[in-house]
Amino acid sequence: MNNFIFENSTKVYFGKGSVKEFLAGSIKEYGNNVMLAYGGGSIKKNGVYDEINSILKAEGKNVIEFSGIMSNPTYSKVKEGAKLARDNNIDMILAVGGGSVMDCCKAVSLAAAYDGDIWADYWEKSGVVYFDPIPLGVIVTVAGTGSECNGGAVITNEEKKIKTGRDYPKCNPKFAIMDPEYTFSVPKLQTASGGFDILSHIMETYFSKTDDDNVSDDISEALMKSIIKNLPAALENPKYYIARSNLMWAATMAENRIIKLGKQCDFQAHQIEHQLGAYTNCNHGCGLAVIHPTYYRKIYKNGMSKFVKFAKNVWGISDIGKTADKVALEGIDALADFIKKIGLPTTLRELGIDDKDILPDIGASCNIAPGSYGDMNKKAIMEILVECY
Ligand code: NZQ
Ligand code: ZN
């Protein structure tokens, strides 16, 4: 293992009935003014809103709502939330939803406590958080980003057409409550895209140096196998608790920094998806599904031993009588087949991008990930985008 420092300050309450059991206790230590933040309204349809609101009221909290947080949350929405938080002297933020709601609230928790422009000082560049953001608690309603156990927040600046993430440990939620039953109502496409996002986070970590034997890669292989088993099962039976609970915890495990220990990490596919999202507002997991196989076919030769390991250990592909090249490609083919099987798009056209002329702008604005096995540059990114089309 390479050297590392590990810290994760989020307390997790996981399991059936966890909101009922632990929400009241978790919010007691914070002041009276609670900002209840959520997305487009799914929590009102599935009963989650009523359950949470009644607990907050029973605790005597003064609830101020911040709703309508969109997928791919925008900097304008962050500013709206920060103003609301300041105007109402918010003592804590309770984010109820998926990655978009959690990320937006992390940025709001910073922006409300900061006098300057947080985009310029904390997203355009990496800043030092020398002050305390408003405390944030989260209740997760969809498995995918793993935002519940890190300080990461991906925000889209719609004017500048930049979607980018930063991870500030001070933005780690104080607590995360995760009831897998809350995810029973997630529609099929979002279940698949969230599930693929989990797989993507693990692959982006696994396919990077070190290639020495290390426990982080071993955990990653186990997590990938779990997703390959549980994601189709959850799609077939959305109320299958075992599948939903395994996916929910795999999402956290992928992004709570544990599998990244001692690893360089890549995240080039994410960098490409982020700019696709900035230009087209596409669904995060769907965009990743289009990019990954093409990206891996481009770089696998530079990470041959890891791609062979992936094929054998994750997909069960035999290497008997085959060259390393063939085994590695069969692993990538297995990944592409899985994407089809779970019903995700495989081309940018299928993703709904009709205008090929925007690809050069997307490619030019995309960050280059230093941890990629490939020798990535803007030309290579453009080639990937064209192949994905
Ligand atoms: O908005 P509502 O009505 O709640 O509906 C949401 C939304 O339409 C729906 N949904 C959520 N829970 C549901 C439900 N529908 C029915 N029943 C439920 N229980 O799901 C849709 C998608 O929600 P969203 O939060 O947008 O999805 P996701 O969790 O995939 O988050 C995506 C965002 O997170 C960022 C992405 O880039 C994107 O902006 N990411 C954040 C990361 C992080 N902070 O660590 C890492 C990721 O790589 C990612 O970049
Ligand atoms: Zn992701």
CATH H-level homologous superfamily name of the largest domain = Dehydroquinate synthase-like - alpha domain
CATH level-two architecture of the largest domain: Up-down Bundle
Helix content: 40-55%
SSE topology string: EHEHHEHEHHEEEEHHHHHHHHH
CATH class descriptor of the largest domain? Mainly Alpha
Counted up, domains total: 2
- Computed Rg: 20 Å
Strand fraction: 5-15%
Topology:
Blueprint: E1 11-14, H1 18-27, E2 33-38, H2 42-45, H3 48-58, E3 62-66, H4 75-87, E4 92-97, H5 99-111, H6 118-123, E5 136-140, E6 152-157, E7 162-167, E8 175-178, H7 188-206, H8 215-236, H9 241-255, H10 268-280, H11 284-299, H12 304-315, H13 324-341, H14 359-364, H15 378-388
Parallel strand pairs: 1-8, 2-3, 2-4, 4-5, 5-8
Antiparallel strand pairs: 6-7
Residues 145, 197, 200-201, 270, 284 line the site of zinc ion.
